[in-house]
Amino acid sequence: MSKVRRFAVKLIVFTYRKFLLLLTWLRRFPDHDPTQILLDWETPEQRHAYGSLSAISLPEKTKVLAIVPFRDKWQLTQNCLRGLFRQELDNCQLQIVLVDNGSQEPATEQGLSQLTPPTAVDLKIVQDPRPFNFSRLMNSVVKSHGQQADLLWLLNNDIEIPSHQTLRHLWEFTTTTDNCGAVGTTLLYPYRHIQHLFVAPGVAIMGAHPFSGLNWQSDYAWFQQARPVAAVTGASLMVKTADYLAVEGLDEDLPHSGQDVDFCLKLQRLGCVNWALSRETLIHHESASRSKALSLQDSEYLYNKWGDFLTANPYYNRNFSRWSERPVVSLGEGAFPWRAYCR
């Protein structure tokens, strides 16, 4: 495709998105809570899912394995570990596995040598210098260290954990909710705007983060309880080890992007419900450690693998346009023309 034609496609998409945004605003005026549209347009599957909350009693003891891959940028990893080290464990046994994916900077070596985790936390450092493949890094650690863990917590090293109760809230929710799949949290940019509520699959290429960039307001309707969603980001994702193994972990044919969406769709196929623990807020220094550039090869693979289950998922209302990251009314425009947009 010529540069002129590609520019024309992007201009058409941009203009159409703005039109849908204006139309939605006019229809919902004067709604001062932008997240209310997500609740007004919940699907039957989402409404039904609320009945599974707190359906199972809390186990006496739970073992959680937190997996944190990194490559240099030691300050980010150190901040992530500080948040993990101060978590309230209660009846939770925490093991942390740091996956060093080819670090070379002296500051990283020095930082690793000076780590002093709390006595209640089991910390291990694994060397895996192979070319970056997020899925393979996670699967390898689960295979070698996760067999005895009840829950897995996949974490990017650029995540900060401000609250000392986050782990407890995550593992209690995951273990007491019937048919619980992947559990994510609200992620905020360092300047306290929203980065991630959940992932809307098949929106604006592989998946979008609705309301990304919006000023975070804790009193918005969305944040009043946990929400059933199609998918959550792998930047912070908790799941039962048994379910991780049942769907054969992350797809290693998706090395750079889309593996979290794919994983959540596999859990849906297994009969699980994915949840966003909306009240729990983490800070995400998005792509401070690695580029977030989407891979067209990964996109092609994901679309071919899932088809309509990606672009018309039952946990994201079909009345929402797939052309807009911000939830807006659809006029029947169909799937986002990502191939024409990207090429």
Architecture overview:
The mean pLDDT is 94. The chain has 343 residues and is of the alpha/beta class. The chain has helices at 3-28, 36-40, 44-49, 74-85, 106-113, 134-145, 166-176, 241-246, 259-270, 296-306, 308-311, 338-342; strands at residues 62-70, 92-100, 121-127, 151-155, 159-160, 180-188, 194-196, 200-201, 207-208, 227-229, 236-240, 273-284. The strands form 3 sheets. A 5-stranded mixed beta sheet has the order 3-2-1-4-11, with helices on both faces. Strands 5, 6, 7, 10 and 12 form a 5-stranded mixed beta sheet that branches. It has a two-stranded antiparallel sheet with strand order 8-9. α5 links the parallel β2 (92-100) and β3.
Distinctive features:
single chain; 5-stranded mixed beta sheet; 343 residues; 12 helices; 12 strands; alpha/beta
Question: Could you give a short description of this structure?
Answer:
With 343 residues, the chain is α/β, with parallel strands linked by helices.
Largest sheet: 5 strands, mixed
The span between the termini is 6 Å
What is the percent of helical residues?
25-40%
What's the tally of helices?
A: 12
> Which class of secondary structure composition applies to the elements?
alpha/beta
Low-confidence parts lasting 5 or more residues at pLDDT below 50? none
Quaternary structure: single chain
Give me the strand/helix succession. Answer: HHHEHEHEHEEHEEEEEEHHEHHH
Mean pLDDT across all amino acids: 94
Share of β-strand residues:
15-25%
